[in-house]
Structure formats: C-alpha cells, structure tokens
C-alpha cells in the first residue's frame, strides 16, 4: 500500500487487473500479417541504413561522406538496439515462428550477449521492477537514483559518473550483466563465473573488431576518419539509449518498493507496480520508433511480450484505466523527463532527498497537491 493505491480496495485492484488481461488478450489474439510486415520493414530499413553508413565511411576522407555515413550508421545502431534487438529478445515476435526473428536465435549489435541480457533484464528487472534488493536496475550499482538507497561519499561525483556512463552505456550494461557482485557476496566463485566472462569477452571482442578495426581498415586511406565515424555512431547510440531508458525508469514521480511488497503479490498487484514504477515519453511516431516504443514504457512493463508497434494503440486505454481507478499515469515530453532525471541524480548525489522527492511524487497523484502541501504544514509540529 502506497499513497498512490491507498484509496483502492483489493477488489478494485483485481478488477483493474482483469481489465488489463482483457486488453492484452484482445491485442494478442489479433496479431497477424500487418504486424509481421511492420517488423520485417523495420529490419530492412535498419540493414539498409547500416549498409549505407558502412559504404559511405569507406570514403570518410570526404567530409559529406563522413557526416552522412556516421549519421546513417548511428541511426542503424539505434534501430537495431531499440526497436529490433530489445523487442525481439523479449519474445515479442516469437508468435511469427520465424527462425531468424526469434528470441532464442537473435544476437544483437551490442556488447552484452543476448543470454546474459535476457537474464538481468527480461527476468530480474521485469519481474522485480523497482523493488529494492531485487531489481538491480535501480542505479545500475553505480548511481543513487532513489533516496532509499543509502548515501555514500562516492555518490558526490555521480553527476559525472552518469555522464560517463551515458557515453559508454553498452559497455556499462555489459559489465552490469556479468553480476560480478555475486562473487563479492560469495554466491558464486570466480571459476563458476568464468564461462560468463569468456562469453562476454568473445562478444565484446567481436564488436570492437567489427566497428573499430575491420570496417575502418577496409576504407584504406580513410582509416582514421572511418574509425572516428564508427566511434561517434556508437557514442550517439549509447547516449540515446541511456536517455530513453532513464526517462522510462528514473523520473522523480516514479515509485520504488520494499521487498515486502512481493509477499503474496497477485498478477493484478504486479500490474499496478509496473504502472507506478514506469514513465512514458510523449512525442511523434518517429520518436516512438527510435525509442523502440519504450516511449510507451508503462505499456511495455505491463506487457513486455506484446509487439512494440501495438503499445501506441493501447496507450489511451491504459491511460483511461489509470484515470478511472485514480492512479497516476506518468508521461511528458523527452526534454522534461530527461531534465528531471538529471536534476534528480544531481540532488541525490548529496545525503537526504526523501522529503523533496516525496512531495514531487504526491503532486503527481490525482488530487495529490494538497497532500504534498500537508507535509510542509506538518513539519513544524514534527519539529
């Protein structure tokens, strides 16, 4: 029970869950040729952009070829990671029975192996979303993004840590996916961890060889500018992915939970936790595609195996459900969401932060502004 849900009875929550189940069934039972054509068209577009980028960078000594080639390659990498790789690995397209576009066979253009990412993301994060002690995505082991995380002096520098993480995001995620802290806690030995380390090393080596050696070498005298183009394309992809993911998970209004929340949690209560623990980005259809439709983070967390092209169609219905049940539906333009996240990270680099964030979260609730103001009124009495 949180301020967001204290007005709901158990029966209310179960009714809400039942309505979401009906919505899910309606979509999943209607999947067909149009959806299959959509993902195949996105894959063709991505491969065309990548091929164009690689070819143009062969002549990277010519500035227009360098600029257009780098931009094309960056767009290709964003599409592959966000709208294709992320969603295929969630099993969103397994219903097509296509042996290539399948969660068991796809290997994405990313340092993380598909298998390790599916363990930390598909299972741990989506099962235990925003639960302290269970969801390792809360701060990715390097950032304090919630006041309930104990403050340590190292967080004084987290504004800079976060900027560095954005630039090398795929490498940071790869290191995170290895779960080295299991060895530190004594849950696994280095010998048990070694197969994962070797698999990640092989994948990282292939990625580095492809982007920073083989393709630049093919450009001959354009080696250096082609290498720079590859580095910039990866940098753009990393910063974009970081921004999208942080906008969906760490805005001030998004809630976190204690482990006790998981005790006897029903499917309907899990749905509610997903809605309270996610936020959307408002924007154009192009923005939605370039975010992998993770701009519909709330809908994605409700139905992670639903094809991403359907999130936009159900978003108005999910928003209406939140309205009818008096729940917040966190959404805003990207500049506002990301700006708020960066300000939050800066504030939480210092101790405290509980009261300020609590007030912001209360203001985001239906009729919550009065509750937020009551905190200020109660402060002198408490003192």
From TrEMBL:
Task: Name the UniProt key words of this record, in alphabetical order.
Answer: Membrane, Transmembrane, Transmembrane helix
Q: Entry's CDD domains? A: Delta6-FADS-like
From the record, give the transmembrane residue ranges: 55-76
Question: Coiled-coil regions in this chain?
Answer: none
User: Would the keyword Cell division be found if you checked this record's keyword annotation?
Assistant: no
> Pfam families recorded for this chain?
FA_desaturase
- InterPro entries from the UniProt entry: FA_desaturase_dom, Fatty_acid_desaturase
Q: Where is the Fatty acid desaturase domain?
A: 66-331
Asked if the keyword Cell wall biogenesis/degradation belongs to this entry, the reply reads no
Q: What is this protein called?
A: Fatty acid desaturase family protein
Task: Look up and give the organism this protein is from.
Answer: Actinomycetospora chibensis
User: What does the record give as the organism's lineage?
Assistant: Bacteria, Bacillati, Actinomycetota, Actinomycetes, Pseudonocardiales
